[in-house]
Amino acid sequence: MTEKEKMIAGLPYNANNPELVALRRDVRVKLAAYNSAGYVTETISAMLAGILGETGKGSWIEPPFYCDYGFNIKTGKDFYMNFDCVILDVAPVTIGDNVMCGPKVQLLAATHSLDPEERNFSGTELGKPITIGNRVWIGAGVIVCPGVTIGDEAVIGAGSVVTRDVPPRVFAAGNPCKVIKAI
């Protein structure tokens, strides 16, 4: 397997691999243009479609926006992400239809080994996919950790750190995020 294939599969991979370094460099060039392009226009919408792996109709991310690769991000239709958000997409990040994210949301599929011998700054990393269902609202400043699934129609309170799956139709909040009540 190539390092890119290992990365997408959630296996340990070498982030310093020349192909991955080039892909990160290429998306940063696209992001620089996107982040300086101004407000919503057909041109900037096309730029976003050229960054993400798949973009649903009517989806929009307010600049500035940052990601690792872009090609591992799939959004449904009518997705909205506010200013200054980060998606570390070393593993697939799948976002459903009609999802809203507040400013400074972080979707972090990237992770490292807990074993200090493996976590030695050699460039070895791994990722776990993030899945966000349909009609989800993620409040400002939320951090979604690797491997998390957020169920349909859930609401995540501002400032929460989501470390484990959230079921559908609940309001969840806190650090660590936990279910507060059913919706």
From TrEMBL:
<keyword id="KW-0012">Acyltransferase</keyword>
<keyword id="KW-0808">Transferase</keyword>
<comment type="function">
    <text>Acetyltransferase implicated in the O-acetylation of Nod factors.</text>
</comment>
<dbReference type="GO" id="GO:0008374">
    <property type="term" value="F:O-acyltransferase activity"/>
</dbReference>
<dbReference type="InterPro" id="IPR001451">
    <property type="entry name" value="Hexapep"/>
</dbReference>
<protein>
    <recommendedName>
        <fullName>Nodulation protein L</fullName>
    </recommendedName>
</protein>
<dbReference type="InterPro" id="IPR051159">
    <property type="entry name" value="Hexapeptide_acetyltransf"/>
</dbReference>
<feature type="domain" description="Maltose/galactoside acetyltransferase">
    <location>
        <begin position="4"/>
        <end position="57"/>
    </location>
</feature>
<comment type="similarity">
    <text>Belongs to the transferase hexapeptide repeat family.</text>
</comment>
<keyword id="KW-0677">Repeat</keyword>
<dbReference type="GO" id="GO:0016407">
    <property type="term" value="F:acetyltransferase activity"/>
</dbReference>
<dbReference type="InterPro" id="IPR018357">
    <property type="entry name" value="Hexapep_transf_CS"/>
</dbReference>
<dbReference type="Pfam" id="PF12464">
    <property type="entry name" value="Mac"/>
</dbReference>
<dbReference type="InterPro" id="IPR024688">
    <property type="entry name" value="Mac_dom"/>
</dbReference>
<dbReference type="Pfam" id="PF00132">
    <property type="entry name" value="Hexapep"/>
</dbReference>
<dbReference type="InterPro" id="IPR011004">
    <property type="entry name" value="Trimer_LpxA-like_sf"/>
</dbReference>
